[in-house]
Structure formats: structure tokens, C-alpha cells
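Batch 3, record 17
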Amino acid sequence: MKKTYTITGMTCDGCANTVKRLLSKVAGVKEANVSLAEKTAEVTHDDVPLSALKIALRGFPYEIVDRE
Ligand SMILES: [Cu+2]
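Prediction for the assembled complex:
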């Protein structure tokens, strides 16, 4: 499935690249595309729970949340 989440805490392209890299490493994630301008991440994955994506960003100044 492909799902779009909100990412908080990103301030520059480096942040966006870091979030993309961290999310891409999660088991079950096929692709992650991050938009700094929209503060979103579009993640293609096999039913990876949001909690697993949150854990991937733990220790970094970013948070992934469901899009309102
Ligand atoms: Cu940054």
C-alpha cells in the first residue's frame, strides 16, 4: 500500500534526506519519498504499522504522524 504521512521537525533538504533514508531502511518499506515543502512522506510498504515507522525516527528531531 502507498500512504502519505505528515512529518514534523524538518527544516532543510538534509532533514528530508535523513527522513527518507531512515524510513527506507524499515523492514517492509519498499519506497519512501519525502517532501520538505509539504512536510509529508509518501511511503510504499507492506502493511508496516505506523509504530514501526515512528521507531525508525526515534532519536532524531522528527516525528511521523497520520495525516489529518
Ligand atoms: Cu535539516
